[in-house]
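Severity: low
Component: inverse-folding endpoint
Summary: output formatting inconsistent between runs
Steps to reproduce: submit the following C-alpha cells with default settings.
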C-alpha cells in the first residue's frame, strides 16, 4: 500500500487539475512580459498626452511614439491607434447630410484597456517641460527594465535589454540639444 500511496502523491504534483490550465502556474516570464507591455502602454499614453497638448512636437515625438507602440506589441500587448489616425472600422466623419460631423471620430474616443497618461504625470504646460517629462519617464522605465534582466528568462531578457536600450536612446533624443537631423 505504501508504494501505491507514494505513486498517487507523486502523480499529483504541479500539473493541471482538469486539463483546462486553471491549475498551472504562469509560464516563466509571463508576469514580467505582461508588466512590460503595461509599462509600455502607460508610456504610450504619456506620448499621446504630450502630442495632444503640444502638436508642434509631432515631428519629434511621432517616430518615438511609433517605436513605443512596437514595444507594446513585442511584449504581447495591443497598442491603440495613434490619435487622429483613421482605422478601417472607424465610421466616416461625415454626417448623414454629407457634411463633416462635429462628433469626434471613434478612433479618438477612449477605448477600454487603452493606456492614458499617468495621473501622477500631468501634461506639461510647455513643450520643453513635456519633453523633459517624457525623457524622465523613458529613463525610469529603461532603468527598471535593465534591473530586471537577471530575473527573467533568456529570450525575454534579450527583448527587455533591446527595449531598454531603445528607451535610453529616446532619452537622448528628448533631451535639449539632441541632434535629430
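Observed output (run 2 of 3):
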Amino acid at each position: 500500500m505504501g508504494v501505491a500511496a507514494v505513486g498517487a502523491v507523486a502523480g499529483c504534483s504541479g500539473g493541471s487539475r482538469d486539463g483546462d490550465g486553471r491549475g498551472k502556474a504562469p509560464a516563466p516570464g509571463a508576469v514580467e512580459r505582461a508588466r512590460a507591455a503595461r509599462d509600455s502602454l502607460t508610456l504610450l499614453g504619456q506620448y499621446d498626452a504630450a502630442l495632444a497638448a503640444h502638436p508642434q512636437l509631432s515631428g519629434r515625438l511621432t517616430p518615438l511614439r511609433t517605436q513605443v507602440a512596437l514595444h507594446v506589441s513585442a511584449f504581447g500587448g495591443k497598442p491603440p491607434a495613434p490619435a487622429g489616425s483613421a482605422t478601417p472600422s472607424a465610421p466616416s466623419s461625415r454626417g448623414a447630410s454629407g457634411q463633416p460631423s462635429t462628433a469626434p471620430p471613434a478612433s479618438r474616443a477612449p477605448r477600454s484597456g487603452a493606456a492614458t497618461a499617468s495621473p501622477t504625470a500631468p501634461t506639461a504646460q510647455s513643450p520643453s517641460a513635456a519633453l523633459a517629462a517624457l525623457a524622465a519617464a523613458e529613463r525610469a522605465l529603461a532603468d527598471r527594465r535593465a534591473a530586471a534582466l537577471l530575473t527573467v528568462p533568456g529570450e525575454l531578457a534579450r527583448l527587455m535589454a533591446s527595449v531598454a536600450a531603445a528607451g535610453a536612446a529616446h532619452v537622448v533624443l528628448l533631451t535639449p540639444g539632441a541632434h535629430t537631423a
